[in-house]
Amino acid sequence: MIPSDTLNVTHEDARAIDDCWNRIGIHGDKSCPLLEEHIHCRNCSVYSAAATRLLDRYALQQDERDPVATQAEAELKTRSLLMFRLGEEWLGLATRSLVEVAPLQAIHSLPHQRSRALLGVANVRGALVACLSLVELLDLDGNAAPATGARVMPRMLIIAAQGGPVVVPVDEVDGIHAIDERILDAASRSGAQASAKYTRGVLPFKGRSLRWLDEEQLLSAVSRSLT
């Protein structure tokens, strides 16, 4: 579950604006007289204006982040990574930058997108949250098919970016795994990450080559995509 303070930014905005879609719109009692014309709230200018205000909040918010690990973190011999798949590529992201793995939600596109990576917004417990494409940010092949025919469940990762959480859709989640830091250190020194965007190293995992993402570089790219 998402801690109450994690979505504080988006919920503050929800209180500051008239979130009519949750009261009289498609997620409320559907009594809004504009529903007959727009069919769905996402087609209404009020909804688009609220989403634009959210993105403006991301641009203005400058939360401080401590880049230095605590002494306790420095003494750990393993590091927790969430393993997930985009197309045919498997990636690992440090769990400290992750808020939650959530079911896939509808993504509502916005007019005049601010960046190619910005897919739109998704409704997370009544709050509008910006949705970004990791395929675009990481320059991946978005048309690649999974290597196996097994049934998989796409998910959304909710990431703790500066200014508030963002969601990114992924094709599959393997789970959270504790990786020996000696393996990670060896991967970061190997130089295999030189040609891969926002990547600290490449390591073997369950017979796969897994890209270990540099969360600081990735979060910085996420923030730039929202301004």
Automatic annotation (TrEMBL):
Gene3D superfamilies: CheA-289, Domain 4 (2.40.50.180), SH3 Domains (2.30.30.40). The keyword Cytoplasm applies. It is found in: Cytoplasm. GO terms for cellular component: cytosol. SUPFAM superfamilies: CheW-like (SSF50341). Its main location: cytoplasm. GO terms for biological process: chemotaxis; signal transduction. It comes from the Bacteria. Residues 78-224 form the CheW-like domain. Keywords: Cytoplasm. InterPro entries: CheW, CheW-like_dom_sf, CheW-lke_dom. PANTHER family: CHEMOTAXIS PROTEIN CHEW, CHEMOTAXIS SENSOR HISTIDINE KINASE-RELATED. This is Chemotaxis protein CheW. It comes from Pseudomonas kribbensis.
